Amino acid sequence: MSLSKLKTIFLAVFIVGLTLAIILNPKESLEASIRGLTIWWEVVFPSLLPFFIVSELLIGFGVVKFIGVLLEPLMRPIFRVPGVGGFVWAMGMASGNPAGAKLTARLRIEKQITAIQAERLVSFTSSSNPLFIFGAVAVGFFNNASLGILLAAAHYLGNLCVGLTMRFYGGSEKTQTFEKKNISFPSIKVAFRELHSTRISESRPIGKMLGDAVVSSIQTLLMIGGFIILFSVFNKVLALMQITDMIASVFTVILALLHIATDLSRPLIAGIFEITLGNQLVSESTADLLDKVMIASFILAFGGLSIQAQVASILADTDIRFKPFFSARILQGIYSSIFAFLLFKPLYLNLQSNQSTELPVFIISNSPDWAKAYWETLIQIGPLITILSLIIYIYLYGKRNVFTKTN
């Protein structure tokens, strides 16, 4: 029997088994579905929507081209991607997953980068945003604001190392037409000329661009919401069927070899599927704090299969391959765990023992309180933002696809 037929049988059996498990466990499946919907409803949608809309407008008005020219001497020699990659990297860190993938796909569709460059770029522009690291994980789960500094440092340093590693990816490709381009000092004049030409070439009026940005962003967020709900249910079903415990037994051996507490194997498995639940279970473990921080760092960097499925769906509309992205997530997980281990003493233990004014004021006062306040505010007003945005989306979608056809 061919490999293709075996894959077909496996997928069919898997989907049927998942369906039966949901039918046999309706209460648990409903609770998991509501949990996933709540995460999307309160946090994901309202936090990502502004970034998505603004990013679309910045690309349309040529601001990204402007930034790309200025960052060309930095991004190309270090990461072997065009200067516009700097914009994607910054927006990816600020707004979190899967913003980096969405912007990379958009640049590839517009042919501002090659396929290989896009695969490099998407690999290191995928990260958790600071709000999630400080507000949800450090303060919400671990109830320790000081851990946010350690987790964020390990996360973004791991992200940087992935970018430096992926610069060697695709070195033998012959289609890299931009690699031999001479790098010169950035010119404001040239950058402005690129900005102006991009704006002039954009034929859509401002109102149409804004409407397209809103519709495109909400459609992406609806897809993201579906994946969050699906993987929340999927994770719960695996736990009910004892499959999670079976996989955890394998990871127990790996953690023991690494001298990490073995009772973190189940939270690790949960985090591999869904980042939020995994970090919550890690924080509730009785393991040593260093072990918990290392596993939490790995989960944050890996992103969970839920986020990776979202990225795969976004990249499916382009010729960007998903495999390099998946490999980079494992690599970043390893890097971030190592940085968490190395930085645990200087960024956490010393921070706890030294409360003198020798340290910066923002560290002494545990300034991530702003993240907690912002997180709580977002949860309170998030549903209202989601409802209003969906109403606007329905109006714009109906106006374009229903009213236009009837007229």
Automatic annotation (TrEMBL):
One matching Pfam family: Gate
Domain Nucleoside transporter/FeoB GTPase Gate: 43-141
InterPro entries: Gate_dom, Spore_IM_YlbJ
Keywords attached to this entry: Membrane, Transmembrane, Transmembrane helix
Signal peptide: none
The name this protein goes by in its record: Sporulation integral membrane protein YlbJ
Name of encoding gene: ylbJ
Residue intervals passing through the bilayer: 45-71, 131-157, 213-234, 246-273, 293-316, 328-348, 378-398
Coiled coil: none
